[in-house]
Amino acid sequence: MSTLLVTGGAGFIGSNFVHHVVEHTDHDVVVLDKLTYAGDRASLAGLPEDRVRLVVGDIADPEVVDGLVGDADAVVHYAAESHNDNSLSDPSPFVHTNLIGTFTLLEAARRHARRFHHISTDEVYGDLELDDPAKFTPETPYNPSSPYSSTKAGSDLLVRAWVRSFGLEATISNCSNNYGPRQHVEKFIPRQITNVIDGVRPRLYGAGENVRDWIHADDHSSAVLRILERGRIGETYLIGADGERNNLEVVQAILRLMGQEADAFDHVADRAGHDLRYAIDATKLREELEWEPTYTDFEAGLAATIDWYRANEAWWRPQKAAAEAKYAAAGH
Ligand code: NAD
Ligand code: DAU
């Protein structure tokens, strides 16, 4: 048994990973989370107190970070500012958390010689044309578009440098778009589900032809655990589940599953610099580490996610008005 330090473990994907670790391993978990607007203690509710401890703090604070990293056997680094639209209105917290925060963790992991796994995104590779047969691979050159994705790209490069220059025992994973329970209502799928619950029409940026490669957060967690256990040091693994859909298809699936007409949505102002298409080739993860996703039916996963938001209004309701106010100010 060992102790994992999970940064950002009160957010959407980090909390999913903490639940996954508790259910599938005998590791203890210490969560380091600043509880920004995106973090919520309630996402860790129901977990055993003798195995999961939450420390509220900033990953860019060396004094907080050093002791926690020293006390852990491995660091799994999820904490980030994660939303592209926010990064367009104010990039500064993205530089602080994604770059300075990652640097601070890496320095502590180097001092204490700790195993490090860095969670990143397919957005570091930029975007693909709609009719391009190519998908992202670990060899695709970095070409990020937004303040969010460029700070994530910078954080990946820091990790690679710490491996090569200082011998840090680190791995990196770049995953596609996640969906599932406990995702903040600012994100595309929960925004539309909670809009429909509120009697508000879904909002589609531009024509809705942008493609995202959807994966259930549970599958992301099982992949990260597999990389932590069996991944080769210094390697990058891409995580995806062949879930390409355009945004119009996703909105229409939500409307259908929630008993609405197929055209009951509105087109709104497009995102500046909006990436067209993401697509992951996860062959390396599947063949080398023998990982397979569990959720292969997107509509079934989406239906379960809709059920979760219907049953857990107390979790998302406190976020909803503030998220919509930000969108109204940005014209979305
Ligand atoms: P999220 O916004 O839901 O959660 C982020 C968490 O990090 C929150 O709990 C927040 O309080 C915490 N945090 C933010 N700044 C912090 C700081 N300075 N110190 C400590 N904690 C801080 O994000 P998410 O969607 O769960 O994404 C988690 C990670 O996964 C990120 O690194 C993101 O880049 C990556 N990722 C996300 C997706 C996706 O589809 N959401 C896909 C691929 C990769
Ligand atoms: O690809 C992985 C990335 O996926 C992660 O790194 C990010 O942290 C995560 O937020 C996500 O980024 P996206 O920008 O793709 O996700 P978002 O949910 O913001 O938007 C998904 C798509 O839906 C995108 O093309 C924009 C569009 N959209 C979004 C919102 C909020 C709409 O059409 N309407 C909306 O109201």
Automatic annotation (TrEMBL):
Q: Which residues form the NAD(P)-binding domain?
A: 5-302
* UniProt EC number: 4.2.1.46
Its catalytic activity? dTDP-alpha-D-glucose = dTDP-4-dehydro-6-deoxy-alpha-D-glucose + H2O
Q: Which CDD domains match?
A: dTDP_GD_SDR_e
Required cofactor names? NAD(+)
Instruction: Give the top-rank taxon of the lineage listed in the UniProt record for this protein.
Output: Bacteria
According to its UniProt record, this protein's enzyme class is lyase
Q: Which InterPro entries match?
A: dTDP_Gluc_deHydtase, NAD(P)-bd_dom, NAD(P)-bd_dom_sf
Keywords associated with the record: Lyase, NAD
| PANTHER family cross-referenced by the UniProt entry | DTDP-D-GLUCOSE 4,6-DEHYDRATASE-RELATED (PTHR43000)
Which NCBIfam families does this one have? Answer: dTDP_gluc_dehyt
Give the family, as the similarity comment puts it: Belongs to the NAD(P)-dependent epimerase/dehydratase family. dTDP-glucose dehydratase subfamily.
Report what the protein is called. dTDP-glucose 4,6-dehydratase
